[in-house]
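Quick sanity check, Heme-binding protein Shr-like Hb-interacting domain-containing protein:
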Amino acid sequence: MIARGKTNRLKFIQTVSKMMAVVLTAVTVLTVSPGAGHAEPGFPQITSATAEVSSNNTAVTVTFNTYALPAGSLADLMADIQIERTGSEEPVDLAADNASNAISMNEDGALIITLNNALTGTDNSIRIAAGAVMNKEDRLSASDITVTSIAAHDISAPVFTGSLSGDGRWVHLYFDENFSLNVPDGATEEQANAFLSSQISVAGDGEHFVPFTDHEGSAYQNNSSELYLNYDNDMKIISGTDTVIRIASGTLKDAAGNLNAEMNLHVSPPVIQSVVVSNDNHDVELTFNKEVLNNTISDDSLKSKIYLVRTLVSGQEKAFKALVAQDTLSIESNKLHIHFAEALSGTEIQIVINGGAFKDLAGNVRDQNTVSGFLETAVGGIDPSPADTTMPAYLYYSVSDDYQDITFVFDEEIFNAKGDDSKFLENVQWYDPSRNQWFSTLPSDVTFTFSGSKLIMHFPAPLSGRQYYYQFYPGHFMDAAGNVLTDYVSTNWITPQNPATGISYNGGYFSGDGRFLSLAFNSNTALADQTLVDGVSHLSEYITLSTDHGVTYSALDPQDVVSLHDSQINIIFHNAKQQGSVKIKVSPGVLSDLYDSKRNSAVEATIAYNTPELTGYFFSNTDSEFVFADNVAWREHVGKITVYDSNMGVYRTLNASEYVLSEGKLTLARGIFAEGNYYRVIVDAEGYSSKYFEGRTHKSSEVFYVTAPVVTADNGITATIRLFNNAYDEEVNGNQNIIFELFDGAVPVSIVAANLKLNTGTYSANFNVANAAANPNYTVKAYVVSRYGTDPSNLGLNLATVKTPLELDLAILAANQNSNND
């Protein structure tokens, strides 16, 4: 680049050269004594410089090693200056950096560069071209002058860069720099955590904030640039798709002393809203509720986190298929486009996305697998025999009676993924009670035996300490296809010896939609009530309850009923509790063992899980209705409904069009559930424990099998049916009525209906008619329906299929055999 300033400077240099030639000519005629020196110039040449940044990072003062002047105009000088900012790959002209940048020279001969955009970071540099400046004797700088490692002042408080969350119960919050909590010097960890908790509030809907301290949980600084939050009692911090965490001003402080202003952190990760397949079945478009970005290192890495899954046999078997090299994908705003080289076909196909694949613009990431709705494609199927690409699943563990063996059980045959026993012993965290220490490698005398789907860990001597704990890190187990288990495998605390202790609280739970509360104690025998006076218990007087998170406690209502049964206190509330959780206190010494050798310690505990019970069935061919005793407070705080497919082990957050929550009823839209699959539904409401209910999907008419009524005319008309509950193994039952309707020919005469929790068995109804024996036209029909109320024309859904007695017997026999096999 030859700038106008360089042209002028070139003429200047040529003029100076001519002058120097004259001087040199003059010097040659002087008489100089041999060995005499010559006169040095009065000012050194400009060869180096230093830089100082202003307090607001918008000005840089470059001070040269001697007084400096521009060789030409200021415009010429500016054309000879380049800047390289932190993170840039190469320097750019100062004007190209920003057209509003400007320069000046101060009275001390320093160059002042005024920047329109403030400097950031610690690795900025300024380059001034050779010949751009000169000293007082007009001697030009002979080479480029570069000042490096110019550090901007830290004037910004920590900035939120995103979050990582699983199902919403916990969340990691990340920031762009190291910080500390703004607590006094010498504050303990407990005090710091209490301060942090007091500075946080959460709005599940993004608007109505609740102090973090209203619920039990943990809040602490996880490392130098990260916070960690979680709620206890299975409550969700992220209870909706618009959750905001507010951090009060002055909570975080960086190394430069900058304090944060109030921060409203939008932490809900993106969720799938819908999925659409192109007409030719080659392209799938997944729409999220917000703009998404690839959170992996490349498109290929993202592809490895996405795969197809298809139900093969009524939910009992799944075919998984990864994307192949010819498949492509792209992200456009809130949409993921996937092009399949081979056209999709078949039914009950879904797309599974592994956790960590996507983030939103705020940097929020879901650390949990999720699944789309079902893809509507042409009739057919994908590869019916996919390669085994699923890792083994850990089921449970058991301890031998002599405490010398621990057996770990998986869902398929497993092998040592480490190659040899010595490697297998490594990366196993365990607690040794004899040394009161944690270790990460098992002793060499511990042996292992792989046997089918089991690993047997054998100890040279029985475990005899107070308590033990074992956890295998990911990468220890693999199946026959080489799929390695990437989850942790852990025991609970193992206590070979459990010394006798006093009677202590062992947990509590609500039931009956908040009408009943039970408090359990750690006694293997019945407890005695030590509050009896003349045979009358005063136990209720020693129990207080708080419905405002422990701010105030009140005595129980005089109409509440308190009783002691075995090792459990039961409370029946006159007015059901509808809060998500309550705190309860029980005075010490009011309970004892039968011999009064030990008494209870004081109880102060939070009991949550106070959510309504939902009953209903999962249907594949129509909407699924679940009813509950209406709890307005809970219903109005529901922010998210998630469906878990237990066959795949994946979650899907429903969008607003897929469910309706109304007074006493939750309706889930048709198309969410595939026939034969086993599902869990999780309803998250801010301030309440998550509500779970689960069951296997049926066609609505296949919930029950029923025989045609057998009618007798003794003492009126009696109709009898045999009924088989085809959904006998479900956790959720209800929402059914059995109806017997009497006809005289084609004319309905009478009806008998009952809302029962029906099961396999015999049911009958009697109609009191005087001429039963004389009228051969009487017939009875029987139905099992999902609804029967004041409108007899609206019976809801038919839940039963008529079978012959033999067909019913065969169905019952098959069900019993399946149950025995399980």
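Posting the structure with no commentary besides this: Confidence is low (pLDDT under 50) at residues 1-40, 380-385.
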